[in-house]
Each structure stands twice: as C-alpha cells, then as structure tokens.
C-alpha cells in the first residue's frame, strides 16, 4: 500500500507538467511518421527528469526510448510503458493519442517514485518507449522488427474510449491496395476501343458489398475508391481502391483476404482490366488477453474510483484495431481503455476537443491521470510479487497457444 500511495502522490504532484506535455502534443497534431514536435517534446520531458537515460530517434526517426534503473542494482525485470502521439488528417488528435503519451509518461514516473521509496532494491528497469505511426503503418511492428522490444518483459499502455474497460477486444487487420489498368479512349466517339478501369473499381466495390452478407458478423471489410479517372470524356485507364479486412483473430485473416481478392480479380476478368493487388503497411494482430493483469488493473482502478461495467457494452463487432496487438503476441501486457469525460466517439471533431480543447482538456485530465495511476499500481503488484509475475507469464503462454491453435491450452 505504501508503494501505491507513492505512485498517487507522484502523479498528483506532477499533474501540471503532465498536462502541459499532453497539451503541447495536442496543439501541434502531426501525422504518422512525421511526429517530430511530439518526439522532441517527449525527449525533452524525460531528459529533464533525474536519472533517466534518453535515446532520441530510437530505431525509427520519430521513436524514442527513456530508461531508468536503480543505481548499482541488477536489471532483471524490464517494465515498459508505451506512448503514442500521432494524429489524424484533418481532425487532429481525435483518437486522444496525446493522452496516451501522457498516461505512459505519468505511469512511468509513478512507478519510479514508488520503487525509490522502498528500502528493498527490486531488480527492475523502467522503460518508456515512444511508438509512432499507430494510425497508418504500425510503428510498433517496425520497432519489433528492429529489436526495440527484445529486452522488455512486461508492457503497459492505455487508450481513450467512451468507457473504462480492462480488456476491450480488438480486430486483426490487413490493408490492401487494388489498382486496375485499362485503356483510355474517347468516351463518346470510340468507347468500344477502351477498357474501363473505373467500371472494374465499381464492380469490385459492389462485389465486396455483396460479400459482406456472407461473412461472419464479427468480420469487417471497409474501402474507398481513391482514384476513378481524369475527365468525363475519357474512358478511365486507371483506377485505385484502398481496402482493409478485419477478423476477430489474426489466424483468420488469410480466409477473408482470399475472399476479398476473389472479388477484385472477378472485376478485372469481367471488364478486361489488369489488376494489381498489394499489401501496404503491416498486419495488425488482435490483442491477447491476460486475465491476471486485467484483474489487477480492475482492482487498482476500482480503488481509485474507476467504474467498470460488469458487462461492458463493447463487443468485438464494434472494435477497432491497434498495433499493440502485435506486441501482445511477443510480450505479456495490458491495453485497457479509459473514459475521458465525453460520450463522443473516437475519430470525430468532438473527441478532438475533449482530448485537448478547453474546457474538454480539464475534464479529461482527471480521468487520464487516474488511469496512469492504475497502470503504475498494477505494475507495482507484479514487480513486488514473484507469484503474480509467474501467473502473468503463464496467462501469456496459454493465450498464445489458444490463438495459434497449437499445443494444449487447457
């Protein structure tokens, strides 16, 4: 209890600094991979903190890493808190990633303060990892490939939403780029000499729309026609669509991808176009559950006044996707969602205002810092109790076996 009290006192004492950090990121929204100001602001924040080692441009241009460990002590358990800070085009921080960065920073400071208050030297290292480009290509996946998570043992982050939930199911997702190549011709004088790439795009769009009624209710396919021609009196020689397919678990993605590809290829066959299908970005995995971490987080959150619905009105069919899912497949972790004082939905202008605009920011702050405390207190539980750590790792092992469909997960 004394360590958890230290967490709360630290976060409360730093609330002004943390609010300024979040507000500065919110005020300069930057798109995925271009989060230069957010990167520099977070690097400056931790560089000014005592005893933190900070690495700029860590493995990616706008990623960073800040680390702390007790002086002279062995480093056995590396506990990481993740920050996101990319914004959305046109509507800024409508997913509240400035608040994710604040939660990660606050939770790390809180855990450090708690460990500094105890006479027992826990063999712990705290890492804050800045993970850019969640909204597009999946910066965490690129960081995994670059070895940024290789020495991390536990990982924590939290995401703004409409409700508090220790676990909110997310969907695996794959992006597809579909390009049709036809033949231009005068659309009125010699239309029979053309091959209409826009017709292929429209057929593909309709094919997918028909497919939707035949797929599982918790799967999703979304898409847009990105390019459809240049001029009304020219038969379009080129068209382009962007699609994504989402499934409950990553192991189901190949099945839905094959169905979608059949729709795209059928449109090419029907119109005489050539089709080119590619897969930009990284595959996002679903998040593996960890019942032990989730129970600890609920207990700590409840003690702080967080109200968790017994049956959250979330369901898999209403879920989004995150590259944290990929992290959850290699390291035990938790990714709760938290209320920020608004019923507005993510990816709306109203949510942007709630995440950082006055008076929304003031309201969101108390919920954000409360979440940071709950995360840090959950880390305290695991750090201080080897049996809990063992159970967290066992939960992780069993979840992987179940999702990958190998071994005995009973």
Total tally of structural domains: 2
DSSP strand content: 15-25%
CATH class wording of the largest domain: Alpha Beta
DSSP E strands, number: 12
Q: Globular, elongated, flat, extended or rod-shaped: what is the shape?
A: elongated
Biggest sheet, spatial arrangement of strands = 1-2-4-3-5-11
Structural class: alpha/beta
GO molecular function: dipeptidase activity
Pfam families: M20_dimer, Peptidase_M20
Protein name: Peptidase M20 domain-containing protein 2
Domain Peptidase M20 dimerisation: 177-269
How would you describe this structure in keywords?
single chain, 410 residues, alpha/beta, Aminopeptidase, Alpha-Beta Plaits, 2 domains, six-stranded mixed β-sheet, 12 helices, disordered C terminus
Quick summary:
The chain has 410 residues and is of the alpha/beta class. It has helices at residues 2-13, 15-27, 36-47, 97-116, 139-145, 197-211, 253-271, 291-303, 324-328, 349-356, 360-384, 386-404, and strands at 53-55, 64-68, 77-83, 124-130, 154-156, 159-161, 172-181, 220-227, 238-247, 274-278, 333-334, 337-339.
Could you walk me through the main structural features you see in this protein, from its secondary elements to its overall organization?
This protein is an alpha/beta fold and 410 residues long. It has two domains: 1-170 and 285-404, Zn peptidases (Aminopeptidase, 3-Layer(aba) Sandwich), CATH 3.40.630.10; 172-278, 2-Layer Sandwich (Alpha-Beta Plaits). Helices cover 41% and strands 16% of the residues. It contains twelve helices and twelve strands. A six-stranded mixed β-sheet has the order 1-2-4-3-5-11, covered by helices on one side. Strands 8-9-7-10 form a four-stranded antiparallel β-sheet, covered by helices on one side. β1 and β2 form a beta hairpin. α2 packs antiparallel against α4 and α4 packs across α11 (360-384). It is elongated. Residues 406-410 have low confidence and may be disordered.
């Amino acid at each position: 209890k004394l360590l958890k009290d230290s967490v709360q006192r630290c976060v409360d004492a730093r609330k002004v600094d943390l609010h300024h950090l979040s507000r500065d990121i919110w005020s300069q929204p930057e798109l995925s991979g271009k989060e230069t100001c957010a990167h520099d602001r977070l690097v400056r924040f931790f560089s000014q903190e005592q005893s933190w080692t900070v690495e700029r441009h860590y493995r990616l241009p706008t990623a960073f890493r800040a680390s702390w460990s007790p002086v002279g002590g062995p480093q056995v358990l590396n506990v990481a808190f993740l920050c996101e800070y990319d914004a959305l085009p046109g509507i800024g921080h409508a997913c509240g990633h400035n608040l994710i960065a604040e939660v990660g920073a606050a939770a790390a400071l809180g855990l450090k303060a708690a460990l500094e208050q105890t006479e027992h030297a826990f063999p712990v290292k705290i890492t804050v990892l800045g993970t850019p480009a969640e909204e597009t290509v999946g910066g965490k996946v690129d960081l995994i490939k670059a070895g940024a998570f290789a020495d991390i043992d536990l990982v924590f982050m939290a995401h703004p939403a409409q409700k508090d939930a220790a676990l909110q199911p997310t969907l695996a997702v794959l992006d597809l780029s579909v390009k049709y190549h036809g033949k231009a011709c005068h659309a009125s004088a010699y239309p029979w000499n053309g091959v209409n790439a826009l017709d292929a795009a429209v057929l593909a769009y309709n094919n997918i729309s028909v497919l939707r009624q035949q797929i599982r209710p918790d799967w999703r396919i979304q898409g847009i026609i990105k390019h459809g021609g240049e001029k009304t009196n020219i038969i379009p020689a080129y068209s382009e669509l962007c699609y994504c397919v989402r499934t409950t678990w990553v192991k189901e993605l190949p099945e839905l991808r094959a169905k979608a590809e059949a729709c795209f290829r059928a449109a090419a066959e029907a119109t005489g176009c050539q089709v080119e299908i590619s897969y930009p970005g990284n595959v996002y995995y679903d998040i593996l559950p960890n019942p032990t971490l989730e129970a600890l987080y609920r207990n700590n959150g409840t003690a702080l006044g967080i109200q968790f619905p017994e049956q959250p009105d979330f369901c898999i069919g209403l879920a989004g996707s995150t590259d944290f899912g990929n992290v959850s497949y290699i390291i035990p972790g938790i990714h709760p969602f938290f209320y920020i004082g608004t019923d507005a939905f993510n990816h709306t202008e109203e949510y942007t205002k709630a995440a950082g605009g006055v008076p929304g920011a003031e309201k969101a702050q108390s919920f954000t810092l409360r979440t940071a405390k709950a995360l840090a207190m959950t880390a305290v539980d695991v750090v201080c109790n080897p049996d809990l750590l063992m159970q967290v790792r066992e939960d992780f092992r069993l979840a992987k076996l179940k999702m990958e469909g190998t071994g005995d997960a009973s």
